[in-house]
Amino acid sequence: MKILVMSSRIYSIEFELIEMPEEKHILRGVIEKIGMETSMLKYTPAGKKEIRIIKPVIDHTRAFEIIVQTLTSQEHGKISSPDEIEAIGHRIVHGGEKNKESEVINEAAKKEIYKCIELAPLHNPYNLKGIEAAEKILPKAVNVAIYDTSFYHSIQNHVYLYALPYNLYKEYGIRQYGFHGISHMYSTQRAADILKIPEKKLNLISCHLGAGCSITAVQCGVAIDTTMGFSPLDGLMMSTRSGSIDPEIVIYLMKIGWSINDIQACLNRQSGILGVSGISDAMEKVVQEMLEGNSRAKLAVDMFVYRAQKYIGSFYVALGGVDAISFTAGIGVNCPIIRELIIKGLEVLGAKLDGKKNKSFTGEEGIIHSDDSRIKILCIPRNEHLMKARETYRVAKKQI
Questions:
Q1: Residue 268, Cβ neighbours under 10 Å: how many?
Q2: Strand ranges of the sheet holding 24-32, from the earlier edge strand across to the other edge
Q3: Cα–Cα distance between 290 and 293 in angstroms, integer?
Q4: Are 119 and 173 in contact (CB under 8 A)?
Q5: What average pLDDT is seen over the chain?
Q6: What are the pLDDT digits (tens) for 98-137?
Q7: pTM for the complete prediction?
């Protein structure tokens, strides 16, 4: 079964065509800057170099048309007819409380995704646009929703509830939801494969460290806690997001004249690594400045590392011990020094890196713990497209 998986965002659509159940990569790409004259299509057929084409793309429907044209083109296409695409998997950022697992998209599912727009206003509207484009252009294909939040429906209510008046949860859905679920789900499955531990017996602390950062505690293959909360702003310090702060800070800023828009911009786009370092939102650049003696860069790195260690330590206790710690996403797989600094503070738990192995795995999958480490340590590049393909295949094969 040929499955097209996609992530539709405000200005872009990422996509990949995968043959299932063989998990054979056929072609992947992205359309960037949707709605602009300088829109760019970038795609890479299996075994070939990346191809880039600049052309205006007016909206998400046109973007999806271009994706299908690319897949069927005589020069670089990999299928002869759009009808070969039997199913389409859509990443949906917020599924709310009702959407607890991946499902075929029908009118009822779209209504629930629409209801969650108020919880994810920068994501769900564009996830819906991707669905509508797919339904219009490939009407025979089965569309499947893979919810980023569904991985966390195993978390118990004493963990996901905030200590607020209970009616705020009942009336407005204010609770911890968790995000990056598709990424953590893939890390969990891959860690189980690498370590040859049945997924249902695996205790894992999965660290997704990238532009957005989250850590998830996985017990017997299911999530029991995570760092992101009601929104992706909570938890760890990130590239431009503050992570957890005292809520009184928001009240104070409002009292001294800051607007809601000012505060939102500050917390989401001007804080984190960028805000503290004053240099860049790219960890690689900040680390380089730190090594050259920049004190602000060192402060940003120290803060980032400490917060990761604090959550890992607390999740170790919550899990009652772990089999492994995994690192994924841009910082997690590409910054050996960040992995080294984080694990260095966890030696009290019995976690030890092999220095040579750690430095040798940059952007690659690998086992990086030392022989005497009581906890396995893994580097697992993210592969959310494959995870979406697996979920799409699992759901769609029942319909086809």
A1: 17
A2: 51-54, 40-45, 24-32, 13-19, 2-8, 85-92, 142-147, 103-104
A3: 5
A4: yes
A5: 94
A6: 888 999 999 999 999 998 888 888 789 999 999 999 999 9
A7: 0.92
Q: Could you tell me if 150 and 100 are in contact, meaning their C-beta atoms sit under 8 angstroms apart?
A: yes
Helix H or strand E segment including 217? strand 213-219
Contact 171, 97 (CB under 8 A): no
What the chain holds in terms of domains, given with CATH numbers, is 2-147 (3.30.420.40), 197-384 (3.30.420.40)
SS3 of the chain: helix, strand, coil, percent, to 5: 40, 20, 40
CA angle 62, 67, 69 (to 5 degrees): 90
The whole-angstrom separation of Cα 367 and Cα 2 is 32
Instruction: Give the residue ranges of DSSP H helices in the chain.
Output: 60-72, 107-115, 124-137, 157-160, 166-172, 181-195, 248-255, 260-269, 272-277, 283-291, 295-319, 329-334, 336-344, 355-360, 384-396
The answer to whether the bond into 381 is cis (omega within 30° of 0) is no
All residue ranges of the chain with pLDDT < 70 are 76-77
What is the gyration radius of the CA atoms in the chain, in angstroms?
21
The owner of tokens 């065509």 is 17
Q: Examine the residue annotation and report whether 148 is marked as an active-site residue of this protein.
A: yes
Question: Which of 59, 83, 148, 372 does the annotation list as catalytic?
Answer: 148
The closest alpha carbon to 396, from 21, 17, 137, 77, belongs to: 21
The CA distance from 328 to 184, in Å, is 9
